């Protein structure tokens, strides 16, 4: 059975933290691929600042140099709020030959009890928890812990830098930064 990591998020914008997490988890667990899954409307935060198609394009640009990274747009295509349980039910039906590992930061590990249909979701997917600054990986749910280098970068902070016309060099892949400038995103 092929083992696939899933890294969901708004990716508003995608940054090196996302890429490092995906690659480190892939290597640590010998996953065949990591699927980046941009959400349409995440249930736990406000709507993304940038249109879904621009976010998908940025994720494609960010991941294009890694043959083990795949962009999956199932949540964008479904529209509405992106509940992981609904997504994983569909993916398990469409890909019965794959075992899925859902990658989340420690902040989301703490939030797991509030996830929709969490007990049923635990039967569909294994959760991978990665450490995040000021958060522990404490939960009653079975989580596979993976240590990754800690890079203090957030999409929220990068949006502020972009809005203030500050440099985001090295925080965002060059092609993503060029796309942001070309489309005048986050201004």
Q: What kind of assembly state do the chains in view correspond to?
A: single chain
The helix fraction, in percent, is 25-40%
Describe the largest sheet.
Answer: 6 strands, parallel
> Averaging pLDDT over every residue, what do you get?
90
Strand content: 15-25%
Any idea what the CATH architecture is?
Answer: 3-Layer(aba) Sandwich
* Helix-strand sequence: EHEHEHHEHHEEHH
Blueprint of the fold:
Elements: E1 2-9, H1 16-29, E2 33-38, H2 52-63, E3 69-71, H3 74-78, H4 84-94, E4 98-105, H5 106-111, H6 118-124, E5 126-130, E6 143-146, H7 155-163, H8 174-183
Describe the protein.
The protein is α/β, with parallel strands linked by helices. The chain has one domain (2-183): HUPs (Rossmann fold, 3-Layer(aba) Sandwich). The protein is 40% helix and 18% strand. A 6-stranded parallel β-sheet has the order 3-2-1-4-5-6. α4 (84-94) packs parallel to α6 (118-124). The relative contact order is 0.20.
Give me some keywords for this one.
187 residues; 18% strand; six-stranded parallel beta sheet; Rossmann fold; alpha/beta
Summarize the structure.
With 187 residues, the protein is α/β, with parallel strands linked by helices. The protein contains 8 helices and 6 strands; from the N terminus they run βαβαβααβααββαα.
């Amino acid at each position: 059975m092929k083992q696939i990591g899933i890294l969901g998020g708004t990716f508003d914008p995608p940054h090196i933290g996302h890429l490092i997490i995906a690659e480190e988890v892939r290597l640590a667990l010998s996953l065949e691929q990591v699927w980046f899954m941009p959400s349409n409307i995440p249930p736990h935060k406000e709507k993304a600042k940038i249109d879904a198609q621009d976010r998908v394009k940025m994720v494609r640009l960010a991941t294009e140099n890694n043959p083990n990274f795949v962009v999956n747009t199932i949540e964008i295509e479904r529209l509405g709020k992106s509940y992981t349980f609904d997504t994983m039910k569909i993916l398990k039906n469409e890909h019965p030959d794959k075992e899925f590992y859902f990658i989340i930061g420690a902040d989301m590990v703490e939030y797991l009890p509030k996830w929709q249909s969490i007990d049923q979701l635990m039967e569909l997917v294994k959760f991978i928890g990665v450490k995040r600054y000021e958060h522990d990986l404490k939960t009653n749910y079975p989580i596979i812990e993976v240590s990754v280098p800690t890079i203090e970068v957030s999409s929220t902070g990068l949006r502020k830098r972009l809005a203030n016309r500050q440099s985001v060099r090295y925080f965002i892949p060059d092609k993503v930064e060029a796309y942001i400038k070309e489309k005048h995103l986050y201004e």
